[in-house]
Amino acid sequence: MKIFLDTSSLFKLYHKEADTHLIEQIFSGNKIDGVFLSEIAMVEFASTVWKKYRLKEIDKVHAQNMIGDFEADFGKYTFTHVSNAVIEHAKNLLSKYGAQGLRSLDSIQLSTSLSLVEECNLFVSSDKLLNIFFRQESLPVPDTLF
Question: Quick check: is 7 in a domain?
C-alpha cells in the first residue's frame, strides 16, 4: 500500500500527541511500501516543531532532535515536487473551498494529494477540515480519522 501523509499526520510519527495511536495503527495494520509527502512538509514540519518550542511544550534540544530525526528519514519518503501545476490547482481549490475554510498550505497539500491519486491508495490527514476536503474530492481516507 502506498499512502500520502500531510504534515499533521507526519508530525505524529515523531511526537506523541492525541490520535498518534491512530496513525501508528495505519502503519501496523497495513503493509506500507511507499509514503508520499508534499515538499512543503519539510517546511511545515520544522514550523510545527518550533511552534511547540515557542509554546514551551518541548525544549530546544528536543526540537532540534526531532528535526534531525525527520531529516535523517528523508530517504524513507517520496517527496512530491510542488510544481506550477500543483500551485495552479491549489489556487483553483481555494476558489472552490476557500469559503469553507481551506487555507493556503492545505490547498497545496490537497492539490498534491490529487496529483497522486494514481500512485496512492490512502490519503491521511490529522486535520479535520482537510479530511473533509479529501472526502469531497473522493480521495480514500482512513475510517478511523475524523
Answer: yes
Amino acid at 25: Q
Q: Per the domain annotation, does 145 fall within a domain?
A: no
30 in any annotated domain:
yes
Q: Are 125 and 109 in contact (CB under 8 A)?
A: yes
pLDDT-derived band at 112 (thresholds 50, 70, 90) equals: very high
- What's the pLDDT at 121? 96
Does residue 143 belong to any structural domain of this protein?
Answer: no
Assign residue 124 the CATH number of its domain: 3.40.50.1010
For the segment 37-76, what is each residue's pLDDT rounded down to a tens digit?
A: 999 999 999 999 999 999 999 999 999 999 999 999 999 9
Distance CA 34, CA 15 (A): 21
pTM of the model: 0.94
- Of 4, 2, 6, nearest to 106 (Cα)? 6
Q: Which residues pair with 80 in a beta bridge?
A: 38
What angle do the packed helices 128-136 and 84-97 form, to 10 degrees? 100
Residue 143 has a pLDDT of 85
Q: Containing domain of residue 20, as a range?
A: 2-136
The count of domains in the chain is 1
